[in-house]
Model the fold of this input.
Amino acid sequence: MVLTPVAFGIGGFSVQRFAPMSLVSATVQSQCPYCGVGCGLDLLPPGEAGKAVKRDADGNPMWSARGNRTHPSSLGQVCIKGATVGETLGRGRLSQPLYRASRSDAFQPISWDSAFDLLSEHIRSTLASKGANAIAMYGSGQFHTEDYYLAQKLLKGALGTNNFDANSRLCMSSAVAGYTRSLGSDGPPCCYEDLDHCSVAFLIGTNTAECHPVLFQRLLKRKKRDPKGLTIVVVDPRRTDTAKIADYHLALAPGTDLALLHALARLVLQDSGFDSDFIDNATDGFAGFTQTIQAWTPGKTSKFCGISEKDLRAVARLWSRQDNILSLWSMGVNQRREGTAVVGGLINLHLLTGQIGKPGAGPFSLTGQPNAMGGREAGGLAHLLPGYRLVTNAEHRSEVEKAWGFTPGSIAAQPGMDAWKQVEAMERGELDLWWVAATNPLVSMPNLERVKAAMQRCGLVVVSEAYADTETSHYAHLLLPAAQWSEKSGAMTNSERRVTFCPAFRPRHGESRPDWEVFAELGRRLGFIDQFSYSSAAEVYEEFTSLTENRVCDMSGLSHSLLQEHGPQQWPFFRGDESTTISKRLYEDRHFPTASGRARFQQDKPLGLAEPPCAAYPLVLTVGRYLGQWHTMTRTGKVERLNAMHPEPCLEMHPNDAERFGLEHNGMAAITSRRGTLTARVNVTDHIRPGSVFLPMHWGFTQAEACEANALMHDQACPISKQPELKASAVVVAPAVSVVKPEEQETGVLDNLRRLLTPALR
Ligand SMILES: Nc1nc2c(c(=O)[nH]1)N[C@H]1C(S)=C(S)[C@@H](COP(=O)(O)OP(=O)(O)OC[C@H]3O[C@@H](n4cnc5c(=O)[nH]c(N)nc54)[C@H](O)[C@@H]3O)O[C@H]1N2
Ligand SMILES: Nc1nc2c(c(=O)[nH]1)N[C@H]1C(S)=C(S)[C@@H](COP(=O)(O)OP(=O)(O)OC[C@H]3O[C@@H](n4cnc5c(=O)[nH]c(N)nc54)[C@H](O)[C@@H]3O)O[C@H]1N2
Ligand code: SF4
Ligand SMILES: [Mo]
Done:
């Protein structure tokens, strides 16, 4: 084994590839399966080193987790979710395939063999009667890359429909579209080390403290070490834990970010803070851009955004200073009906000031899920193909068809249905098969009642799930038990383009199977023997990486064995390139993958919210996350310590609004949008700006403290990225006269599931 130390040189442009692996034999190394920071974990077996075996509440022996010091992305750090992941792995699992012909029946156990027969027959008859467009799959950034890759191959190659989309549509698609529009390709150009080198950190629409905690701690440490050397700006309508460490907190009105970014650019221009050499030699569209931003004078912008002109000017001076500016963003930017335009507005500022492709600088999108990046690489959205290719590009289709061994023309030339289009197709009765895998849309999609109604119009709803009792499972016909992270091996890519091998280190639960194995077996049963015969996940990965050769995300030199032997690696990682040093950043040469080789200024006019507040619904509801919970709580909801951190969902509301609407701290509020009403306890706090209220997204209808925030949210989306505006809907609040719980879902289903699913739950 080669053990070469990693170089973490200050200002270093390159890194030696190979991180040393831990020498502690009993520990297993992997990437944390929660957020996109992608921390390295050391996993210790139950009863390691003579200690008593710890068991979860169902009696399963538990692995424990701690930070892996040799992982270059996290350097031994870990947050509370990563540290407690061992407690989630065995509890409440789905252990065998279950089926019911109609939603009024009880689920019955069936064998995998029968499940495959049923699926392949259903697919054959749908193809014959309605065609491939009546089939769709909705996958997840929590797939391993191998799962993602084979889902593509099955739908886009074998079945001939591009109707594969993923929950990344709700998460990263504005970042993907924004990078592609401005820079010519997807791919975050920065790396975590930039947090150590930037002199300004511009955090917009990201609650890094709760959602990317290990990166936040890195920034916080830097700030404590060098308070004058680092200025932190946070742009968020709430005074989050992230905003508390900011030198400037711009608590802007929701949905006004693009105007703010244009106003900053206008001031930079006025102050001559731009980089004319960069603009002349590396960009297109500057003249048009300067026209677009002219309208956003400081006076007009400060009124529009609800921030002070003084702060606006001070932050503009930071951009003009020509120091290293790193901007970090996530859902406050992406989940907007103009999400792509806001990403473009942010990248404009980096192009204007030449702040890209150098240490401590660049537009850095913080990925949400642990492998949403791998999904993008593997073609995991309805308009993509593996290797950052597009289904609309004939050359790309032909390259992929050839590599996959399908006849020319097998891959459809039009983008498939994105996540919301899939729902609308079900609504119209046009989908005969909706296959949901590794996501829980009956908590996470907008306009939930519409999704529930639509699902009832679909002939066969298949749900591939690791856990027994999820909201979406209640609306399924066929439940397929998934072997999850720790039980299957595969690769994941984190926000800084670093790939970590995640080994199988625990036995599969019950009859569960890895998603990729299920897709491969179905492919073979449908007659595509050559295309879907693999003896291991390593073979799948190798096929995938060879398809990235000569693409921006070239990782053709990576394999499971290389990652196992040499530890996590960043891409690009060319074939045969194992022994050289590489750049950690993209675009250091100022050459961009567009036709002209130049990056493009964007010229979008700010539109504001799709559903602005009005007399009837005067408040803006925004929905996001708590530090100790992960999405729909199927995993973190099983950890007592995490539940104790956040015992119930609360409506955050400013004291002025509480007074105006007659609400008291700790009282119950009825929150109503055009789509429905729910109740939640009120937390009166000045941590949110007047006019905005906040709910967490986590508590679905199976939770005792159910609070279906997304039942209130609208489904309007960015026309370019198709990402819904999950950050804003207009609502009205009033004291609750009675507590509104989500309707009882199909009496008996829960009991039926609990009885059948895991002996431990009985
Ligand atoms: N603890 C925890 N961590 C997670 C997750 C989790 O479920 N729990 N999920 C992971 C995933 S998949 C994702 S995508 C990320 C999400 O990470 P974040 O995007 O950081 O989290 P959110 O809470 O969704 O939203 C971030 C902030 O956007 C603000 N916001 C709302 N509207 C606007 C606006 O108009 N403009 C601006 N500038 N800001 C606005 C909200 O007030 C909120 O503080 O977190 C990842 N990490
Ligand atoms: N209003 C509002 N809505 C939002 C958001 C918001 O900020 N505001 N955020 C959006 C974003 S960014 C995201 S990413 C989504 C997240 O929303 P979801 O994707 O719905 O949330 P999860 O709970 O992570 O769902 C993952 C599911 O996969 C299961 N699972 C885990 N491992 C495996 C596996 O290996 N195989 C299979 N088959 N199943 C597995 C888990 O048990 C869980 O049920 O929510 C979106 N919805
Ligand atoms: S910061 Fe994210 S990746 Fe790291 S331990 Fe926490 S949840 Fe896991
Ligand atoms: Mo996400």
